[in-house]
Design a protein that fits this description.
By secondary structure, this protein is mainly beta. It has 2 helices and 12 strands, in the order αββββββββββαββ.
């Protein structure tokens, strides 16, 4: 279970209320306080040393004349922490670790390059909003859990197993690559009106002198069905 972070129900409500006005992608509104890519905890030459940070959403918007349920599109599940992720097309099978914020307020990255991690201060996969799962692309020249993330295509499936015994099945809508210095915080983390998923790793040509990749690869997916 989660060990830290705010209650997620208010986050879900705010996402539903404000998400309709945004381009159908995207966590927090207003955008993150610091949109600059962050540095992960000290590590050897790792490929996923920087990941942008989601931020908790603002308080829910006024809904005096609006039923939030009318703004939500597609299936949405109750909150339940995820335990594993499976991506058949690229052979990923990984237990999930919880990712919080480090001492500098940066989103943590998994300590084990073979495991993916869920940002536990945001929505759970299957709940309303853009859940975030991050993983390393490589570590000291060895492929990480998301080494082949860039191979995903529209229509591919991502299955997230949850503590409540359900599995949320997501369908990939698109894959994008962004320069870390121009990461589109609203597009990736902005409020949405459905249960979404963001898979994030590093990309581009590896800079051996700086031990980093210049880009982030982001997969956007939407909840399609539920297995019990």
């Amino acid at each position: 279970m989660r060990s830290s972070g705010p209650v997620r129900t208010p986050i879900a409500v705010a996402l539903a209320v404000t998400g309709v006005a945004l381009v159908a992608t995207g966590l927090a509104v207003p955008p993150a306080r610091n949109a600059t890519p962050l540095v992960a905890p000290p590590a050897p030459t790792t490929a996923t040393r920087t990941l942008p940070t989601p931020e908790p959403t603002a308080p829910a918007a006024e809904t005096e004349h609006t039923d939030v349920r009318d703004l939500v599109r597609g299936p949405v599940l109750a909150e339940s922490d995820p335990v594993a992720v499976s991506i058949p097309r690229i052979g990923v099978q990984s237990a999930l670790v919880n990712l919080g914020l480090d001492a500098d307020g940066a989103m943590e990255v998994p300590g084990d390059p073979a495991r993916a991690g869920w940002f536990s201060r945001g929505p759970a996969p299957g709940a309303l909003g853009p859940a975030v799962i991050a993983g390393h692309v490589s570590w000291n020249g060895t492929p990480g859990v998301f080494y082949r993330l860039g191979k995903l295509r529209r229509g591919d499936r991502v299955v997230v197993s949850r503590e409540d015994g359900t599995s949320a099945v997501f369908v990939v809508e698109k894959l994008s690559r962004y320069d870390k210095t121009r990461f589109p915080v609203r597009t990736v983390y902005g409020a949405i009106d459905h249960a979404g998923l963001r898979l994030i790793t590093c990309g581009g040509r590896y800079d051996a002198s700086r031990h980093r990749y210049p880009d982030n690869v982001v997969v956007f997916a939407r909840l399609d069905s539920v297995r019990t």
